[in-house]
Amino acid sequence: MNRKRFWLCTGLLAVLVSTTSIYSVQQRAKRPSVERMSAASIKTVSHTTGSHSQSLIKTLPVASPQNPWTIWPVAPKKGQTYTVVAIGGSAADGTGDSAGEGGYLARAFRTINSTQDVSYHFINQSKVGYGPIQYDDTQLSRTFLNDSQMARLFNDYKPNMLVISFGMLDDIFKKTPMSQIKQALHDEIESAMNQHVVVVIVTPPSTYASETYYKAPLNAYVQAEMDVVDGFHNPNIYVLPLAEQMDQYIESHHQNIKMYEADSWHPNAAGHALAGNLLAQDFIQRFLLATTKS
After folding, report:
1. Whole-structure pTM value
2. CA-CA distances (angstroms) from residue 53 to 70, 282, 288?
3. Cα–Cα distance between 67 and 58 in angstroms, integer?
4. Angstrom distance (rounded) from CA 172 to CA 148
5. CA–CA–CA angle 27, 30, 34 (5° rounding)
6. Sign of the Cα pseudo-torsion (126, 128, 129, 134, in order)
7. Quick check: 61 pLDDT over 50?
8. What integer pLDDT is reported at residue 260 of this predicted model?
9. Is 147 or 149 the better-scoring residue by pLDDT?
10. Distance of alpha carbon 267 from its chain centroid, rounded?
11. Section 74-101 average pLDDT
12. Beta bridge partners of residue 64, listed in sequence order
């Protein structure tokens, strides 16, 4: 009798252990691997260029320059004002445009605000004669290391977005070394990244100089700018190829760059208007299609 009871208890214990082991294996199979999820998330984000993907934003960690795959928003939420600061030279400042229009950058953001259900507060800090190294004053003197011009811009205006649009013609004329240009652009972009500020690079509008006697050097400077952007491997930096789009528009409409020049270095009012419209359309297509006003 005792022997039968012993074997009965042993059999019940074996069944219990077997059942528990099977359940444990099934539960482990249902659990997603943390390592596998992390790899999949990184791969998905690295191939995403649009920053308005709500499903992605919800799964990403807190924005940080140390986490370059965090995609920062480029559009204001409903009822929110989004501050944009621009830096560039004389064309970006509006030289050649009609009085009060402000140039192609100001025109573009006015068009965006008037046609989209968004509110961008545009502040143009572009200056005549300025190129990348004039904003990177840390290259000019070490006394600016703790109070650089870019640091003051971020402190004074607290922008959500930095627009960089240099014409580069002054630097070509002065033969500014490419290494200095690249270092300055790197420093300006890095300063924005450190402040969680989205960067939008706008290539310069077409001019007579950029289409003729300065075409080759300007292409080289713009390529250097793209190399700097590529070096960050960061999707919070966007490039809007305004020069290419303007060239394509003029060619497809069988026009001539002379129609759009105030002088060989600057667009006239028609040139600023065309550049502003093309830039606004590109911006809207990339970021704001869901916010069009009804």
Report:
1. 0.75
2. 12, 18, 11
3. 15
4. 25
5. 110
6. negative
7. no
8. 94
9. 149
10. 25
11. 94
12. 67
- Measured CA to CA, the distance from residue 90 to residue 284 in angstroms comes to 25
CA 35 centroid distance within chain: 29
% residues pLDDT > 70 (the chain): 72
- 34, amino acid identity: V
| Total residue count of the chain as it appears in this document | 294
Half-sphere CA count of 203, side-chain side, radius 13 A: 24
Cα 226 off chain centre by? 12
Q: Are 284 and 120 in contact (CB under 8 A)?
A: no
Per-residue pLDDT, 52:
30
User: Is 82 within 8 Å of 121 (Cβ atoms)?
Assistant: yes
Burial class of residue 21 (count of CB atoms within 10 Å of its CB; 0-12, 13-18, 19+): exposed
Quick one: which H or E segment has residue 202?
A: strand 198-202
Asked if residue 62 lies in contact with residue 95, where contact means CB atoms within 8 angstroms, the answer is no
Amino acid identity for residue 10 in this structure: T
- Per-residue tokens: 157: 């205006």
Helix (H) or strand (E) holding 8, with range, is helix 2-30
| Cα distance between residue 43 and residue 21, in whole Å | 34
* CA-based end-to-end distance of the chain: 87
| pLDDT for the residue numbered 58 | 34
What digits encode the pLDDT tens for the residues 232-272?
999 999 999 999 999 999 999 999 999 999 999 999 999 99
Rounded-to-integer distance, Cα 126 and Cα 124, Å: 6
- For the cut 90, the answer to whether the pLDDT of residue 202 exceeds it is yes
pLDDT in tens, 149-196: 898 999 999 999 999 999 989 989 999 999 999 999 999 999 999 999
- DSSP letter for 31, please: S
Cross-strand bridge partners of residue 83 = 121
